[in-house]
Amino acid sequence: MNSNFPFSDTPDTVCYTCCHVLNEHKPILYVSHDEDGYWQFLCGGIHKEEDAKIVSLSAILKIDDSIAALADLDYGEYAEADDSDCDWIVHSKS
Ligand SMILES: [Zn+2]
Q: Ligand 1 centre and the CA of 72: distance in Å?
């Protein structure tokens, strides 16, 4: 276990991102920690099912290390930012 890893999940935990972040290098503007434990790291755009990409938590952290600030996001919470320089605003889904 890497003690520098900010998430309580392991670095190889499967999470979701979108093709825009992965292939087009758009900033991550939407982070969700779902009730079922899945993390989603998406750009701020509209998504179709085929846009979803599966990566590991360590891979997404390499793409954008600012998401480390959201490592303690609770189940059922999500965070949004207006652009990559903005602070995260955390919301609860329930
Ligand atoms: Zn996207």
A: 23
pLDDT, tens digit (0-9, with 9 covering 90-100), for 68-88: 999 999 999 999 999 888 889
Neighbours of ion ligand 1 (CB under 5 A): 18, 20, 43, 45
- Detail the DSSP E strand segments found in 1-94: 14-18, 30-33, 39-42, 52-56, 77-80, 89-92
Number of domain units in the chain: 1
Residue 94 resides in a domain: no
Is the pLDDT at 2 greater than 70? The verdict is: no
- Confirm if 29 and 43 have CB atoms less than 8 A apart: yes
For residue 1, is it within any domain?
no
| pLDDT tens figures, 23-35 | 999 999 999 999 9
| Coil, helix or strand at residue 59 | helix
